[in-house]
Amino acid sequence: ASGDKTVVESEEKAEEECNQTENQAEAKETVEDNTDETTDEDIAEVEPTSAPQGDDDLNEMEKLEALVMKDIEDTISTLNEEYELLLSEIDTYEKYLEDTERVEAFYEKLYNENLMLCIRMREYSVDFAEIILVSDKSFDDMYADLENIYDCVYDDAGDDIYDEIYDGILDNMYDDYYDGILDEAYDNAEYGEWLDARSEEYEWWLDCRSDVYEEWLDFRSDVYEFYLDMRSEIYSDDMEKANEVIEDFVEDIEDLK
Questions:
Q1: I want to staple 185 with a disulfide (CB 3.0 to 4.6 A). Which of 67, 93, 95, 241 is the partner?
Q2: pTM for the whole thing?
Q3: Does 24 score more than 60 pLDDT?
Q4: Gyration radius from the chain CA atoms
Q5: With 60 as the cut, is the pLDDT of residue 87 above it?
Q6: Half-sphere exposure of 72 toward its Cβ, with a 13 Å CA cutoff?
Q7: d(Cα 62, Cα 223) in Å, to the nearest integer?
Q8: Nearest to residue 238, comparing CAs of 230, 247, 246?
Q9: Average pLDDT of the chain to the nearest whole number
């Protein structure tokens, strides 16, 4: 009876902690709401000219957008394949106890891959800006083209990373291990060993999920700030300061590596 009570208390505590971290996801909507407001308040909209976009510039933009999406797709696909392999080879409680280091190592890899992916997204933002600045277009057209940074990197790429890693693989790991294999082993496992293994698994999952979310949020904030700064300088017809914004952001990105 004492053991059952401890399990219940442990389950309630874990559920409460899990619900707290789930609330982080609400910040995603808050960020998007706030940034939409900032765009409207901080920078007046500029009516684009009727001049058509050059075929060469459009082609470069399209190629870069495709590269961004392919990078995310390839990274997520590889992570999913590796996780499926891990799950197929560690699919029982006994195998889990024998090879916990592999599970922990996958959490570490998941975080590192997410970190490097978010760094590359910042670099793609710079690529977009550089293509725009050398396009020989009017300031009005360059201003309009900067929307590619927001639409492709901040919005589309940001959503994909969140959905596929934070809300995807990590949710699957929680369901498969903490709430799956380990939970189902309770009736037949030695209680102390089971409790330690399940508590450790939850800690790994929670730490990785929190770190992944924090890095995702930082990447989106950095890209959005870069996007606003570029719009501000182009709106002011100041090419020199626009280039300085790029140089400063490149330095910031290098500091993350």
A1: 93
A2: 0.79
A3: no
A4: 23
A5: yes
A6: 22
A7: 19
A8: 230
A9: 85
